[in-house]
Write a structure and sequence with these properties.
2 domains, Rossmann fold, about 625 residues, binds coenzyme A, AMP-bd_C_sf, binds adenosine monophosphate, ANL_N_sf, alpha/beta, GMP Synthetase, Chain A, domain 3, EC 6.2.1.17, AMP-bd_C, globular, 18 helices, Propionate--CoA ligase, seven-stranded mixed β-sheet, five-stranded parallel β-sheet
C-alpha cells in the first residue's frame, strides 16, 4: 500500500495507536496512555490522561531545544509601514509578560478572555498568554461590529477583554474604542477590565480602558500552568443556521497533536521554514495556521496586516514571499481572484523571486477551476485546494504532500486526511454511489483537533451535527466523491453563505433586517459574485400601513447590517417586495430565489403557495 493508504487505514482501524504515535512527537508534561475514551458524561475525548500546555509546546519547547535564536514570528504591515521580527526567545519573553499581565488582573485557569484585535503581534501573544495560564481565549474578528462583539461577550462571559485602539484598512482607520464602548453598552455581561493596546496610529481616548503597555511594565512574567489534554484552549464563534453564533470549543491536547501532524503530513513543512497563512487571527485559519500550527512545528509564522491588492498593488503577496523567504503560502481563492482581476497577465509576479515558495494552499471556499488555472500558470507553483471548517480546525480533505502527492483534479479538494472518513449520504443516510451528489458526512469518531462541544450548549452540538445521520458528523456541505476517492465540495446545503472566504449566516442577517420597525418579514440569500464567491442579497416585505421612501428605506437597511454585523457582511442591496415566495407550509423558497438570481434553471416547487410571488422576484432580476 502507498504511504497515504497505509496511514489512512491505520488511522481508521487502529486510531488510538496511530494518534498516540503522533502525540509522542510533542513535549508533553505527562504523555497520554489513552487515545479516545468516553467520559463519565458520555462525551468522547482524546488523550484524557495526558498533561501539557499548548503555549509551552508552541514557544518554550523550542527555546528548551536550543532554537531560541530562530525566528518565530514576522509581522509585515504595509498598512502601518512596519516590519517586526521576533525570535523564539523574544516571543517567550513577550508571552510570559503578557501572561503575567493577565494573572495580575486575576485571570486564572478556566476564565475567559475576549480578544478583539487587528493583525498585530500582540494578538498572537495574547492568545498564547491565555493558553499559558489555562485561560480560554475567544478571539472576535476585528471586522465585526458592536452587536456581534456584544453577542460573543454575553456568551463567553469574559473576565477581561483585550483590544487595540484601532485596526488599519486601506485608506481608513477602524476605530475600535467606540465599537467596544457600544458593545459593552449592548452586552449584559460586563468584563472586569478592558485592556487596550495603544497603537501609534490612535491613542487611548476612553478613561476607563486600561493601557496594555502600562500594565506590561509592572507585570511579573508567568510560567506555564500544567493542563489536562481535555481542558479547553479556546472558543471561536462561527455562523450557524440561526441568528445566534455557535461557540466552537477546542481542547489543548487533541488540537496540538492534530495541528502538529498536519504541518508535516499535509503542508510538508519542517522546523525553521517560513509558513504564511494570509488570513486573520479572527478566523479559524488564523487560529490554526497563523498562530498555533506553525509554532508547534517550530516554523516561522508570518502575520500580514495588508490586503492582496491595494497595499500597495497586486504584487503584495509575491513581495512578501520574496522578502521573507516563504515556503508555504495559504490564502483564500477570493484573494487570488482579486489579484487576477488587477493583474490579469501576472505581470507583477515577474518582479519577484519566488524561489523559496514550494506550494500555494487555498481554502475557505471552493477553489474555482479558473482561479486554480490562473494561479498555477502565473506562479508556476503547485496549487492545492483543501477543505475544512471552523468545527474541524484542520483539513478534512487535501493533497497530503508530506505523505504522497496526488494529481490535481480541478474542482476537487482531493482526498480525506488520515483520521477523517468521508461519506456522501442521501437524505435517508444511505451511502451514495461515486459521482452522485449528497450530504457530505464524516464518520464518527472525529480525529483529534475537532470541536469537542459548543460552549455552554452540548445540546446544540448534538442537534446541529450529530442528529441528522446516526454515527456521522453532518458537515453542512454538499458534494460528491469520484471513482478515485476524490471529494468535490459543491457548497453549503444549509443557510450559511460564504462571502470572500468569510462564513455568514443568512439567518443572522435576516434577524438584523427583521429588527427594523417597518419590516414585517424578510429573506436573505447568497448570490454568485465574481470576486467574493457569494454576496448576500436581501428581500423585505413591509408592515401594513407604512409607506416610506423606498430608496431611503433600502439604504437604511443596508446601513443597519453594516452597523450591527460589520462591513464584511457586504450586504449592498435590499429589495422591497410585496410578498416572499413560500411553500404552503410557510417555508421561504430561498434555494429557488438563489437559482433565479444566479440565472440557473429552476423548477417551481409543487408545494408553492402563490406562484405570483416568484414572478415578482423574477421581475427584479430582469
Ligand atoms: N476590520 C475592519 N473592517 C474590515 C476588516 C477588519 N479586519 N476586514 C475587512 N473590513 C472591511 C473592509 O474595509 C471593507 O469595508 P468597506 O465596505 O468600507 O470598503 C469591508 O469590510 C469588506 O471587506 P473585504 O471583504 O475585505 O472586501 P474588499 O473589497 O476590501 O477586499 C478582498 C476584497 C478579496 C481583497 C478581501 O476580501 C480579501 O482579502 N479576502 C481574503 C479573505 C480571507 O483571508 N479569508 C479568510 C479565510 S482563509
Ligand atoms: P469556516 O468555518 O468559516 O472555515 O467555513 C467553512 C465552510 O467554508 C465549509 O463548510 C465550506 O462550505 C467552505 N469551504 C472551506 N474550504 C473549502 C474548500 N476548499 N472547498 C469548498 N468549500 C470550502
Amino acid at each position: 500500500m502507498s504511504t497515504y493508504a497505509t496511514e489512512h487505514q491505520l488511522a481508521r482501524v487502529q486510531a488510538d495507536q496511530f494518534w498516540l504515535t503522533q502525540a509522542r512527537q510533542l513535549a508533553w508534561h505527562t504523555l497520554p496512555s489513552l487515545g479516545l475514551t468516553t467520559q463519565a458524561d458520555g462525551q468522547q475525548r482524546w488523550f484524557a490522561d495526558g498533561q501539557l500546555n499548548t503555549a509551552y509546546l508552541a514557544v518554550d519547547a523550542h527555546v528548551d531545544a536550543g532554537r531560541g535564536e530562530q525566528l518565530a514570528l514576522i509581522y509585515d504591515s504595509p498598512l502601518a509601514g512596519r516590519v517586526q521580527k521576533f525570535t523564539y526567545n523574544d516571543l517567550l519573553e513577550e508571552v510570559r509578560r503578557c501572561a503575567g499581565l493577565l494573572r495580575q488582573l486575576g485571570v486564572e485557569k478556566g476564565d475567559r478572555v475576549v480578544i478583539y484585535m487587528p493583525m498585530i503581534p500582540q494578538a498572537t501573544i495574547a492568545m498564547l498568554a491565555c493558553a499559558r495560564l489555562g485561560a480560554i481565549h475567544s478571539v472576535v474578528f476585528g471586522g465585526f461590529a458592536a452587536n456581534e462583539l456584544a453577542v460573543r461577550i454575553d456568551d463567553a462571559q469574559p473576565k477581561v477583554v483585550l483590544a487595540a485602539t484601532c485596526g488599519l484598512e486601506v485608506n481608513k482607520i477602524v476605530q475600535y474604542q467606540p465599537l467596544l464602548r457600544s458593545a459593552l453598552q449592548l452586552a449584559e455581561h460586563q468584563p472586569e477590565q478592558v485592556v487596550v493596546w495603544e497603537r501609534p496610529e490612535q491613542p487611548i481616548t476612553e478613561a476607563d480602558f486600561v493601557r496594555w503597555q502600562d500594565l506590561l511594565v509592572v507585570a511579573e512574567p508567568a510560567d506555564c500552568v500544567v493542563l489536562q489534554a481535555t481542558d479547553p484552549l479556546y472558543i471561536l464563534y462561527t455562523s450557524g443556521t440561526t441568528g445566534q453564533p455557535k461557540g466552537v470549543v477546542r481542547d489543548h491536547g487533541g488540537h496540538a497533536v492534530a495541528l502538529h501532524y498536519s504541518m508535516a503530513a499535509l503542508y510538508d513543512t519542517a522546523p525553521g521554514e517560513v509558513f504564511w497563512a494570509a488570513s486573520d487571527v479572527g478566523w479559524v485559519v488564523g487560529h490554526s495556521y497563523i498562530v498555533y500550527a506553525p509554532l508547534l512545528r517550530g516554523c516561522t509564522t508570518l502575520m500580514y496586516e495588508g490586503k492582496p491588492v491595494g497595499t500597495p498593488d497586486a504584487g503584495a503577496f509575491w513581495r512578501v514571499v520574496q522578502d521573507h523567504r516563504v515556503k508555504v503560502l495559504f490564502a483564500a481563492p477570493t484573494a487570488f481572484r482579486a489579484i487576477r482581476k488587477t493583474d490579469p497577465d501576472g505581470v507583477l509576479i515577474k518582479d519577484y523571486d519566488l524561489s523559496s515558495l514550494a506550494t500555494i494552499f487555498m481554502a475557505g471556499e471552493r477553489l474555482d477551476p479558473p482561479t486554480l488555472a490562473w494561479t498555477e500558470q502565473h506562479s508556476q507553483k503547485p496549487v492545492i485546494d483543501h477543505w475544512w471548517q471552523t468545527e474541524t480546525g484542520w483539513a478534512i480533505t487535501g493533497n497530503p504532500l508530506g505523505l504522497e502527492r496526488f494529481p490535481t483534479k480541478a474542482g476537487s479538494s482531493c482526498k480525506p486526511m488520515p483520521g477523517f472518513n468521508v461519506e456522501i449520504l442521501d437524505g435517508e443516510g444511505r451511502i451514495c454511489a461515486p459521482g452522485v451528489q449528497g450530504y457530505i458526512a464524516l464518520q464518527l469518531p472525529l480525529p483529534p483537533g475537532c470541536l469537542t462541544t459548543i460552549w455552554r450548549n452540548q445540546a446544540r452540538f448534538e442537534s446541529a451535527y450529530l442528529k441528522q445521520f446516526t454515527g456521522f458528523y453532518a458537515s453542512g456541505d454538499g458534494g460528491y466523491k469520484d471513482e478515485d476517492g476524490y471529494i468535490f465540495v459543491m457548497g453549503r446545503i444549509d443557510d450559511v453563505i460564504n462571502v470572500a472566504g468569510h462564513r455568514l449566516s443568512t439567518g443572522e442577517l435576516e434577524a438584523v433586517l427583521g429588527g427594523h420597525e417597518m419590516v414585517a418579514e424578510c429573506a436573505v440569500i447568497g448570490v454568485a459574485d465574481d470576486l467574493k464567491g457569494q454576496i448576500p442579497l436581501g428581500f423585505a416585505v413591509l408592515k401594513d400601513g407604512v409607506y416610506p421612501d423606498l430608496d431611503d428605506l433600502e439604504r437604511a437597511l443596508v446601513a443597519k447590517v453594516r452597523n450591527e454585523v460589520g462591513a464584511i457582511a457586504c450586504l449592498k442591496q435590499v429589495m422591497i417586495v410585496d410578498r416572499l415566495p413560500k411553500t404552503r407550509s410557510g417555508k421561504i423558497l430561498r434555494a429557488t430565489m438563489r437559482k433565479m438570481a444566479d440565472g440557473e434553471d429552476y423548477q417551481i416547487p409543487s408545494t408553492i403557495e402563490d406562484p405570483a410571488a416568484l414572478d415578482e422576484i423574477q421581475q427584479h432580476f430582469r
